[in-house]
Structures are given as structure tokens and as C-alpha cells.
Amino acid sequence: MAVTESLPVVDAVRRELEIHEQVQDGRPVVRASMTLTTNITRSPAQLWPLLTRPELLAGWFGPVVGDLREGGAFEAPRGARGRVLAVEAPHRISLTWEHGGSIDPLLIRLDPEDDGTTSLLLRHTRLVPREEFERVGPGLGAVHWEIALLALAAETDGWRASCLLDVPVPTPQWLGGEQGIEHVRAWSVRWAAEAIAAGVDEAAARRGEAATTRAYRG
């Protein structure tokens, strides 16, 4: 049964999905742009080192090896790698996210708010074979970033104002436990809803929802 109840950690993130169908090398593909936006109770200058210094990334995202300056290359957890395309410290970093043969654009933007907090935007654009997108939907890729934002919020106490409770650290143990499974299901439901809003057939969106939940439950 779909999860519809409010979970503070899930509701701390706003989501948007844009999809466009096109043909590449004679086959139909879906260009899916997944945008996650949240407010963090830190300034851009305070957040920037956590996103660009490997020794600080290791504390919440995982081991990142390489050069995160403009023009540099890096390796990230779970076999991902990429190149840094452009940097505007402490507000914007544009890079490639390369995994499973795909080379995707990834944008992270930090916009200051009047109250000293930061609006953090993360946008990952994927080019996916249409049959794969119809099978797994956007959630399979997006939940990875949901978990990353949760880890960043836990590291910084950055959702103190929006969640009004202790933010859990998304360790493998937590993700595999009752609370983690509940949150994965909720994230899957939210991304299925975004897919439907973007024009995806509801039956296909629900298949993607189920596939995402299964994948992250192990």
C-alpha cells in the first residue's frame, strides 16, 4: 500500500521532475531532470567546504578521491566518477556524474536566504532508455540523492527548523531497519507522484515506485 502520511525528513525536500522523450542512436530515450531543493540552516560559505573538500565529504557522503577544483576529476562511492566543469565558490558547482556507462550533468547551487540559511538545489539529469524508464521510473536515481541530502542535514543539523527533531544518520543499518524502509517507501511514493505530474502513465509510475522500494531494501 502506498505511503501517504507526512514524514518530516521527507517533507524537508521539495521535488520536481521534467521529462522529455527523444531519439538517440535510433532508439527512444527519456531525458529525466530530477531537481531536489531544501533549506539548510547554514550559510553557503559554511556549506561549501562540506561539498568540495574530500576530507569533509568523507564524513557524510563517503570517500571521494581526486581534485574538486574546476577542471579536476574525482572518484566517488559505488563506482561513480566525474569531472568538475565549473565552480563559482561558494554558490555553484557543475560537474559530470558518470556511472554505469552514463555521463550525466549534475548541478549543485547554494543560494543565500535573508535569515542566514541556504536554499540548496541539486539537479541531476539522466538520459535513460525508454523501456528502462518505464520499468524503474525516476526514483531509482533520485533516492540516492534523497539519502545524500539526509546525510548532509544530519551532519550539519541543517533541518533543525524544518524537522523539529533529531535527523537520523542514513547508515546501512538505519536504511535496512524499520524507519529506513518506511522512508524509502515514502521517497518512492513522492517520486512516483512527480512522474505522474510530469505525464507518465500511472501504472508505469507505480511500477517504478515498487522497483525503487525493492532496490533500496536490498
Automatic annotation (TrEMBL):
Query: Which Pfam families does this chain map to?
Result: AHSA1
- The protein in question is named Activator of Hsp90 ATPase homologue 1/2-like C-terminal domain-containing protein
Residue ranges of the Activator of Hsp90 ATPase homologue 1/2-like C-terminal domain?
43-140
Its domain of life? Answer: Bacteria
Q: Which InterPro entries match?
A: ASHA1/2-like_C (IPR013538), START-like_dom_sf (IPR023393)
The similarity comment for this entry is: Belongs to the AHA1 family.
